Amino acid sequence: MQPTIIEVAINGETSPKRNAHVPRTPQEIAAESIACLRAGAASIHNHNGDIALPGEAAAERYAEGWAPILAAIPDAILCPTTVTHPDLPTSMSHVPACVARGAKMASIDPGVENISTTGIDGLPGAMRATMGSSIDEIEAMLEIIAAAPAGPAFGIYEPGYLRLILAYHKAGRLPRGSLARLYFGGDHNFIDGGRGGFSFGLLPTATALDAYLELIGDSGLPWMVAVPGGDLFRTDLARAAIERGGHLRVGLEDHAGDRMPTNLELVEEIAELCRSLGRPPATSAEAARILDLP
Fold it and tell me: Where are any strands of DSSP class E within 109-253?
């Protein structure tokens, strides 16, 4: 079987208050990423501290952390996050600018989702928002990502997101390097860490994974699993994904629970699980071939 791609979402919007180990500065991002890549990760996904910052300004901020990573590990797979801006061309203007600075993938959320912090009794809290994109916007995003060029990493929060992406995949309309990140909702909120989680997605179980795999079928679309608001390693989802030929995403953007690990610790433990099941971690070069990155 092919090796397992491990992606590390090293920070997201996680604050040091939620986990003191989260890297926020460019220097911290670089050091953490290099350590994770050397421990078995193939791909780094990070935020740059301002998810509203577009275009060249966003890319320049990413590059502060990326330049040392690429100097140490030239084939590292780097992936920025999305930009929150109401104007689509502006919200996607960072993608070609980031590719020019070494990014090989770009994040895209192919649907619409409600998110919030956790309130009293697990109900939605004070911060409430709707994120995502319409079908017309998704098509425009795919064109921009393909032209950059970069591999699109799709955030699959719900089964409907996946069905839409599979329709484009089967029609030959997805860019090279496409990857479905299957998000399973944990029992914590990945914004503030409160118990209760979000009202999105399926539970992080092998049964839920099999429901997604029924949709994917023999399409050949690469996929990985992640547990925003949970602990992937402590579910049966990680083992199930490895055994079923999938890939894994860990990191302090997603992780929440009763322990406060570092990104490196999360990589080391999941990499050892991969080895024990006969699918050792992929290098960045191997991951690029598996995904057929442009």
Answer: 112-118, 124-132, 151-156, 179-183, 223-226, 247-250
